Amino acid sequence: MSVGKLSNADLNHFIIDEIKPQRSDILIRPGVGEDCAAIKFGEYACVVTTDPITGATEELGKLAVHVSVNDIASSGAEPVALLMTLLCPEDTALESIQQIVVDANKAANAMNIEIIGGHTEMTNAVNRIVVSVTAFGSTRAEDIIMTGGAKSGDYLYMTKYAGLEGTAIIAKEKEEILKDYLTKNEIQDAQSFIEQISVLREGEIGKHLKVSAMHDVTEGGVLGAIYEMCEASKVGCKVYNNKFAIHELTQKICEHFNINPLKLISSGSMLMSVDKDVAPAYEQAMIEAEIPYSKIGVLTEEMDRILIFGEEADEEIFDVIEPPVEDELYTVV
Question: Tell me, what CATH number does 174's domain have?
Answer without folding.
Answer: 3.90.650.10
